[in-house]
Amino acid sequence: MNPDRTGIRMVDEVIRHLTAALSSAALYAPEHPKVDEHLGKLVDSYRELSRISSELLIARVEDELLYQGKPLVKSPNVQRLTRLLNQQKIGFVRFSPGFSAGELRQMIKVVLGKEPHPSLEQMTALIQVGSVDAPREEHVEIARFADLTVDERNRLQEQFDRVAEQQDLDIQQITSLAAGFIAAFRREANPFLALVPIRMQDEYTFTHSVNVGILNIAQGMGLGIEGQILHDLGVAGMLHDVGKIFVAREILNKPGALTEEEFAKIQQHPSRGAQYLMNQKDIPRLAIFTAFEHHMKYDLTGYPQPPAGWQLNLCSQITMISDTFDALRTRRTYKDPWDFSKASGLMLNLAGKQLNPELTLNFLRILAHNGEALESFDDGPEDQRVKEEILGCSCSLENPLCG
Ligand SMILES: [Fe+2]
Ligand SMILES: [Fe+2]
Hints:
Layout: H1 5-27, H2 33-49, E1 56-61, E2 64-67, E3 70-71, H3 76-87, E4 90-95, H4 101-111, H5 117-123, E5 127-131, H6 150-164, H7 171-186, H8 191-194, H9 204-222, H10 227-239, H11 249-252, H12 260-266, H13 269-278, H14 285-293, H15 314-329, H16 340-350, H17 357-369, H18 384-391
Antiparallel strand pairs: 1-2, 1-4, 2-3, 4-5
This protein binds fe (ii) ion (FE2) (2 copies).
């Protein structure tokens, strides 16, 4: 996924013409012929770029611009564009092939703050700008956070065993674990250090569930969510895959590709999980929604196939991001840590399609802030199961733009 030099050079060219157009539009007017001149050059350089990559997504994380997850060198043009995006609280700009000159000009007006964001949305889907104006806690510092204690681990494992044995769940236990994570993060901890590092095959659902709960809380805190909803986010994360307990272990643990029939069984886990949770006492509504919706995908192309116009719960969308990250993160065995640029590149490519773009940027901001725990990792063989279950396709993980 590392963008090659040619790609970066072309993106620099696009940015050069974009900032020139923005400067002229600010100095004269967006309709000025000088602006047209720069926009014409922008279109030319975009056309060149689109030979190697069909769309261009530039994301802003804090004061950095990312292209395919990698920070661009801070040239004067990159800095100027970053500043303008920052002023308008724009988190990303995405160009898809086929946009018109009028749409470009409208985008210029939006980036200069002369028109509101929705004015562009009403006009086109080919150029998108996304805002990241969620409040967040500025003062979170990084400190060491111990792994799950033996006691916490036992309590949670017990709950999963109860589900497996079709007994009633003790929601108190799960809630108190969520409370424990929240308290730990408040003590200025790095949530990424709390993730369960080693996934043994038979513990897949267990460790993954804990991780998704932790990541949900981290995201929620990053969005400024507090109180009961924050707790529920953690609980929903821990219970999102509870339906997998009803899928045969041989299927869940099968190392190779799944047959159609087996995949269909796995696809039942959201509704099985939601059904199970509905029959339990005191389960937060968010957890039931999340169990049901967490594979529907932001663009509603996932499963179970929702009816047209379905509105995804925010918690489900947060969980999709935690779920994807944890699946990608652990697709290699043992403790392979993450390379920030590769991780964020993969997530960014899914943003706006399988994942909510604003929430993805919020997540990447948290990742960037906790970046010291993340190191580079080698390129190992891809995990077919992750591709099937998380990306819902069998294309290359290096290019998850399929479908
Ligand atoms: Fe799932
Ligand atoms: Fe999951």
